[in-house]
Specification:
26% helix, 23% strand, 4 helices, two-stranded antiparallel ribbon, alpha/beta
């Protein structure tokens, strides 16, 4: 049996790379790490954003910080960098952090910073799907 390589949101593996400088280790993801090769990525860091950073949400086609700064270009760059990593390793599957403006899969926050969830995909998730990579969230495991 060959071990699969899967792109994984680094925060789900315990890397403190979220906007608030924290991580969100997930028990199911960490259990999967014993059987599969999970390649940690943080699209927001790969896009040039520092940690910690201002909270951001998608508003239409843009990503806006809580103070109103447009950081869409950073998110787009990060998505392209994650795809480069996936291509280098021949990865066809990703497990990304649900509701994140970069990694959300089917659920994201609505852009009002009121914790309202709407249907939608994060910038990286959309880009990976468009390029033939299957995306799951930690909640799909």
């Amino acid at each position: 049996m060959t071990t699969k390589k899967i792109i994984c949101s680094a925060c789900l593996l315990g890397v403190p790379c979220r906007y608030d400088g924290e991580s969100k280790p997930d028990k199911k993801v960490l259990k999967l790490l014993k059987k599969e090769i999970l390649i940690p990525v943080c699209p927001e860091q790969l896009g040039g954003l520092r940690t910690p950073r201002e909270p951001a949400e998608q508003k239409g086609k843009k990503v806006i910080t809580v103070s109103g700064k447009d950081i869409t270009k950073h998110f787009q760059k990060g998505a392209k960098e994650v795809l480069k990593v996936a291509n280098i390793f021949g990865v066809k599957k990703a497990i990304l952090k649900q509701r994140s403006p970069s990694c959300g899969n089917g659920q994201i926050y609505d852009g009002t910073f009121s914790k309202q969830i709407i249907k939608g995909d994060g910038i990286t998730t959309k880009f990976l799907k468009k390029n033939g990579i299957k995306v799951l969230s930690e909640e799909d495991l």
